[in-house]
What does this fold into?
Amino acid sequence: MKLSYLAYRNMVSKPLNLLLSLLLLLLSVSLVTFVLQLSKQLGGQLNKNIAPFDMVVGAKGSPLQLVLSSVLHVDAPTGNIKLKEVATLQKHPFIQTAIPVSYGDNYKGYRILGTEVGYLDQYNAQLVDGKLYKKPFEVVAGSTVAQKLGLKVGDNFISSHGLASSSNEAHEEHPFLIKGILKSTGTVVDQLLITPLESIWEAHDHGEDEHHEEDDDRTEEAEVLKEHDVEKEITSLLIKFKSPLGMVQLPRFINENTSMQAALPGFEVQRLIGLLGSGVQTINGIALVILLVSGLSIFISLLKTIRERRQELALLRIYGLRTGQLLWLALLEGGFLAIIGFLSGWLVGRLGIWGLSHYTQNSYGYALQVPGPDMVELLLLALTLAIALMATLFASCSIFKLNVAKTLSDA
Amino acid sequence: MQLSCIYFYLYFCENIQMVKTLNLAYAYENGEELKFPNIEVSPGKHLLVIGPSGVGKTTLLYLLAGLLPPLRGIISVAGTELNSLTRKEMDKFRGNYIGLVFQQYYFIKSLNVSDNLRLRQSFPKNTNDTQRRHELTERLGLKDYLDEKVATLSQGQQQRLSIALGLIHRPKIILADEPTSNLDDVNCVKVIDLLKEEAEICKSSLLIITHDLRVMSHFQNQVML
It folds into this structure.
């Protein structure tokens, strides 16, 4: 029989002690792995999605909101801007590409984004089926949308007003037609239904007309809106600079001299990650304290069981086991505990990511991945083991002082 | 000390005894000194050490098992002088050559009957002799309880398991401490017969320490403490 088997039997012979120590380990490990994984994926996901664009120009408001809504498609837009106003920007020598986007409708919670075909190139999105759109109300669907909603080339659908799936107001007069399905890019494009800008304009022109007919009190307002519509509005303009000078001069120029604002996705996302970072650090700190408490719990429970098992340890000495082997037995027990605690904690952490992924997928259209262990987690395993083994070692001091004859006679 | 060593060798070289002590004395922590008569057990022979409670019978047993250091004197077991062994060597020697049967029953509670026996066979050298385990438990009437937890065994079964653990590894010498003191007359005889039988089968020597006068008639060689 191996000592490891005896250690295992000893460990499971006290299920309540085992449960307490395991739960504490599980709690701390799952917290750390969950939070680390979440912040890592969030950071990675954000950076990937903002990569194609250096600057966003939109209506005045919170720059973070502008970036979140126009680039990452998670927030509501700050407002609209006139296409005419940004027309000069599109020809600016510092600017390589400037892509107008317009949105405000959804189909079953997935955003319909009106933009130019060039938008797809920025994310390297390629067709897996069908063709690109040419006319208004033709759509290419991102891979996730197509998969989740079971959309195929040739399908029709009716959009709803607003960005949430709960919206009841439908644009029934303008059914959209799926012309193509995109390959998975791992970016926000997967979550979008993309259509020409004109689709958005036409759908809303009609919407305003209807409004006009229904409600006479608001005639004036509707007319004003209609004038705006004639002027063609977009939600924002996504810009990639040709030269780094653009980054220095243009945002300031736009913010000071126009009614629009310019936001830098890189800067805003960095700020966001920084805000999250302090939260992550707090949670990690709490988890570390729990880890230390679980070490203490292992120490106390082992100290208790080693005292209770004094006679068994004396018996093992009679059987010819050396003091070192008894110590090894205790360390094995502590080590098993740490490994089982870590593995179950890691699994719970991943389960948490998986569960959260469903939630974020449904409410924001962002899925999280459930990857295998990474380097930081291996370090965490080492730390968990170190704490458990230290606790075991301290609890095992009495093994060195074990007086076999006395222990057996005292019984 | 030197003289006694020379004397020891002259004394022992003639015939190697299974157990032999010479001028053995032990000092308790409070300084009280205990002297023991010289004892001798030939290979395959048995010895009964008898004496009233409190004369240091158990102490003698622990001295012979190398669990306590003597104050003076020499202990030789199976031709090995225990004083000459390091602590580590003593652990190994004890595990290999000595079988202990206690008055109290000591088991590893987290293991079942079979695993307790297997554990005893695994140290210091791993034998895992299934046949031996099979035969021994069969003879001791434990065969049907191999998968039971030790705590669920009856008193008599625990006693027999305790004996089985004392000799499953075929020790050269079996040291038994008051093996019959808790038993009625019928069971007392049973246990003595069992110990003698098993010692015969393993070709081990048996050294029983007891205050139980009922045992006296079963042994030829006796020492009074």
Remarks:
- Chain B is about 35% helix and 20% strand.
- Residues 185-202 of chain B form the longest helix (18 residues).
- The longest strand of chain B covers residues 19-27.
